[in-house]
Design a protein that fits this description.
By secondary structure, the protein is an all-alpha fold. It is built from eleven helices and no strands.
């Protein structure tokens, strides 16, 4: 889904809007069996034809990415979850369709896992954004603990800053636990779509180890054990 990941690759909103409009029109043309002569669009058209993918999910991703070009902090945790639902969860719904899974329980799990992934992505990117004088963490939680955007930009590590991270990370954990609470009802065929939970668990576990210090260097390192954990999760047929 690289074509829709425009925000980080542009500096001007106008350019981003133009690219979003290109992909909006491209998706429309794809579903009219007239894809533009562009390599990614052509492959997308083939995938749509092969797996009968739902157009609505592509449009939700584009619309939400477009709204997110404003570079503003999320008003509250619900706004972050809405963004995650319309982007990360939408990608999971499409992945399920490609796996041939159309099941309400699988969709329910995808919704929660997508929200968890969106929250963790926001947390993981915080040190990077802070160096660019930007903070996207939910404002309601920051205000609750008396933390300003400037505190993150300066890389502060006081308890109230860590409390903000704890509250946000806890919400991601809740979504993962909720998704697993009805795993027995989810078709095993859907599990490969949810193996992203391995990386989410790993990040949240490492976050706890450093007492929710979002700026700890260890959180920016790749986990060499991820492939092993992924294999074990696949072997145990769990997510």
């Amino acid at each position: 889904m690289y074509p829709f990941q425009i925000k980080d690759s542009i500096t001007q909103k106008t350019t981003g809007l133009m690219r979003m409009q290109f992909w909006r029109e491209a998706v429309e043309d794809i579903y009219c069996d007239n894809p533009p002569h562009q390599p990614v669009a052509t492959e997308l058209w083939r995938a749509v034809k092969r797996h009968n993918l739902t157009k609505m999910w592509f449009m939700k991703i584009i619309d939400e990415r477009e709204k997110n070009l404003d570079d503003r902090a999320y008003r509250n945790i619900q706004a972050l979850e809405t963004y995650a639902e319309n982007t990360q969860s939408a990608l999971l719904y499409l992945t399920l369709e490609m796996l041939g899974v159309r099941d309400i329980h699988a969709d329910h799990a995808a919704s929660h896992i997508g929200k968890a992934q969106g929250i963790v992505t926001c947390l993981r990117a915080t040190p990077y954004h802070s160096t660019r004088q930007k903070v996207f963490l939910p404002m309601d939680i920051c205000m609750l603990h008396g933390v300003s955007q400037e505190d993150f930009i300066r890389g502060k590590q006081e308890k109230n800053v860590r409390d903000v991270i704890y509250d946000i990370a806890s919400q991601a954990h809740i979504h993962l636990e909720h998704a697993r609470s009805f795993s027995k009802k989810v078709p095993v065929k859907a599990y490969p779509a949810f193996f992203c939970t391995v990386a989410l668990d790993d990040y949240l576990r490492n976050m706890r180890k450093v007492d929710f210090n979002i700026f700890h260097p260890s959180l920016q390192k790749k986990s060499t054990l991820l492939p092993l954990h992924l294999y074990l999760r696949s072997w145990k047929k769990t997510y």
